[in-house]
Amino acid sequence: MKRYSVFAIAREALRHHMGWERAWASPEPKASYDAIIVGAGGHGLATAYYLGKNFGITNVAILEKGWLGGGNTGRNTTIIRSNYLQDPSAAIYEKSRSLYETLSQDLNYNVMFSPRGVMMLAQTHHEVRGYLRTAHANALQGVATEFITPARVKELCPILNIDGPRYPVLGALWQARGGTGRHDAVAWGYARACSAMGMHIIQNCEVKGVRSENGVVTGVDTTKGYIGTKKLGMVVAGHSGQLAEMAGFRLPIEAVALQALVSEPIKPCMDVVVMANTVHGYMSQSDKGEMVIGGGTDGFNNYTQRGSFHHIEETLRALVETFPMLSRLKMLRQWGGIVDMTGDRSPLISKTPLGNCFINCGWGTGGFKAIPGSGWAMAELMAKGEPGPLAEAFNMWRFKEGQFIDESVAAGVAH
Amino acid sequence: MLTLECPYCGVKACETELSPGYEAHLKRFGPGSTPEEFEAYMFARKNPKGVHFERWRHTYGCGKWFLAARCTATLEVFGTYPAQVSGPPPEIIAKIQARRPGWTPDGKATA
Fold this sequence. Notes:
heterodimer; A: about 425 residues; alpha/beta; eight-stranded mixed beta sheet; 11 helices; 18 strands; globular; B: about 110 residues; alpha+beta; Folate-binding fold; four-stranded antiparallel beta sheet; 2 helices; 6 strands; about 15% helix
C-alpha cells in the first residue's frame, strides 16, 4: 500500500494522476482462514482491522453479500457522540469517539471526523431532569458533557427557535467533542488498511449456511462455495436474525426500517449537530451544504430498506417547528436502512451457543458512532475467545439474567 | 404506506391509524417457568425475512387488537384475522401458500 501524503499528491499531479493504486484488492476466496467475518460494513471491517493491528491475526476474510459499506454504514446520519447514561455504554462509545479523533492518522485515510459538538435539546421538564442526570453520570464516567442554558443553545445554533410554540427549548445536553464523520470513508479507510495487512475482502459473496462439528463452527457455505474457518464473526446488523438462524440460535432482535433524508445544498448555516428527541428529529449540515436529517423508526418488522412515507412528514414537521428557516427548503433524497433493535436498545458483542462463533449486532439506530470501539471490543473477543472489559456487559445472555443495559429511555429515541 | 383491513370493523386502515404490536402467537409463560422459557417469551424473536404474523391495534378506529399475516421482505399483506386464536387460521395459511408455494406454518419461510 502506498501511503497517501502531500508528496503523493504532488507526485501524481506531475503524471496526470495515473499512479494511484486501487485502495483494496478483490481476491478470490481461499479454502480456509483463521477467522471469517461476515459483513463488510464499518463494524465488520473495524473488527478485522483491530484483529490484525492489536492481535496480529491477518489470515482473515471479510465476506460481504453486496458491496463494501453499502448497508447501514452508507445509510446513516454520521453522528458521533458518547453521552450515554449507563456505564458499559459510556465506556464503549467513549472509546469509540476517542478512536475517531485519531482515526484519519491511524488509517492514513481521511475520515473527515469533525468534532463540531452535539447538542441534545431538552424540550420538556422530564427531559431536563433526564439530561441533568446523564450529565452527572458522564462526569463520573469521564465523558466531557455539560447541561447548557437556552441562551447558550441559541448562541451555539442561531437558526434554532428556542421559544416554542409547542416545545420551548429548556436547555440541552452538550458534548463539545462529539460531531460527525464521513461514513463511506470510514468503511473505505478500514478496508484499505485491512487489505494492506493481507486480509481478503470478498464482495458479492453471500453466506448461505453455517457448518459446525460437535458444536464448534467449521466454515460457511457461500455463493462462492464453501470456505472453512477456525473462528466466525457475524457482524451483519439488520440481517443478524437470518445468520443466527443458519447457526441454530435465536436473538432478542427485531429488524425495522429507519430512514434519513437530505435537503438541497445551502450556504453554511449550522456548525453543530442538533437532536430534538421530544419532537423527534435530528439534523446536521454536511460539508456539501445539505441538511442531513434523521427521524423515527417504523414500528414493524421490515427488510425493504425503505421506510414508511408518513415518517418523512412527521420528521420534517418536527424540524420546521424547531428550525423555522427550513420551511421553504426542498428535500433532495430519502433512503432507509434495516436496523437491528434489541429489547434494551444496547448492542450484543457476545459469544454464541455455537462454539468459536461470535456475534456483534443490535446497534439499532446508533451504530455509526460505535464503529471503532465496536471493532476494538469484537476483535478482542474473537482473538481471545473471551470478552474484554468493553464487551463483557454486552453478552447475549443478559436478557435471561435481567441485566439489561437500558438505554431505551436514557438515550431518548434518536440515536 | 402499509394498509391493513381491520377484521372487526372492516375498515381499510393505513398505518397511521394503527399501532404495531410485533410478533403474534407468542406462547406465554407465567410463575414457575424457567429463565429460558421467560427469555424465549419476552425477548427471543423469530424476526423472519419473509412471512410473518403480527399483532396490530386499530388505535384510531375501533381500538381492538387483531392479527395480520405479512411479508417483511416485500411488504405484501396476505390477510388479517381476529386475535382470539392461538395460531393462524387455515384460510390465511391457504392464502399465503397460494402466494408462497412451499411455505409451511412451522416458521420456515421460503419466501
